[in-house]
Amino acid sequence: MTLSVKDISLRFGGVSALTNVSFDVQEGQVTGLIGPNGAGKTSLFNVVSGIYTPTSGQVFYNDHEISKLRLDQINRLGVARTFQNIMVFPELSLVENVMIGRQSRTKAGALSSIFRTRKERNERSEAERRSIELLSYVGLDKKKDELAKNLPYGEQRQLDIARALATDPKILLLDEPAAGLNLQERVSLKALIKKLNAMDYTIVLIEHDVKLVMDLCSRIVVLEYGNKISEGDPQQVQSDPKVIAAYLGSGGE
Ligand SMILES: Nc1ncnc2c1ncn2[C@@H]1O[C@H](COP(=O)(O)OP(=O)(O)OP(=O)(O)O)[C@@H](O)[C@H]1O
């Protein structure tokens, strides 16, 4: 087992964002996290990735409790994430964007150091080599020297995923990666997620595009008002009356 969420509750003053949510993410799978707006999906990612400390409950990663660790500590253990809003640096090149993501892995620091020593130069060239390799995973290596701001929106999302890969994670948490993408870009994204999963990345996906989730995920967890209301394979979840009611109640989103 890779990631285990146990009885997680998260409250903001009077608002319960999550109530006793538990589920496991199995290694090598693509797990979907779905639910209407405000269901608590992003809050759960924020807890798992160390942005929020849960009010109660625990998160385990390979049997280590990570719920009290910081974002950077959890990241170093092998959990990386993207955010709903794209987090690329528009004025930097693609390869620089990915190299900044690797900065925590190099002792000398990727971009800001003056490359005086052989060790620092070697670290930089290794960081650059690996960054170009990661760009090739998402199909952007040929554009490595272009500025991020000049990429079409769909490719900026792919660059964002390459940045998340920069710390060499085992688990990738993707928060609405298809948001704002057109049909063709969604097809490319689906192929990319399948490819990354085939490369052994374990993936947890928050997504409103239910068809994309059904096509990609072997297991789906459904939240509503901070509670887990269903869990299972796509068939089970799709036919669960609680899930149908939750989606109809939210306008069929
Ligand atoms: N920092 C915060 N302070 C107060 N309330 C918050 C905070 N973050 C989230 N919430 C509340 O927690 C609940 C869950 O929000 P969350 O963003 O996790 O839902 P979501 O399922 O990701 O929604 P969406 O699909 O719209 O992104 C909402 O009621 C939200 O208003």
UniProtKB/TrEMBL annotation:
PROSITE patterns, alphabetized: ABC_TRANSPORTER_2
Q: Name one GO cellular component term.
A: plasma membrane
**Start and end of every ABC transporter domain?**
3-250
Cited SMART domains:
AAA (SM00382)
| Domain of life (superkingdom) | Bacteria
Q: Coiled-coil annotation: which residues?
A: none
What keywords would UniProt list here? ATP-binding, Cell membrane, Membrane, Nucleotide-binding, Transport
Name assigned to this protein: Amino acid/amide ABC transporter ATP-binding protein 1, HAAT family (TC 3.A.1.4.-)
The organism named in the record is Pollutimonas bauzanensis
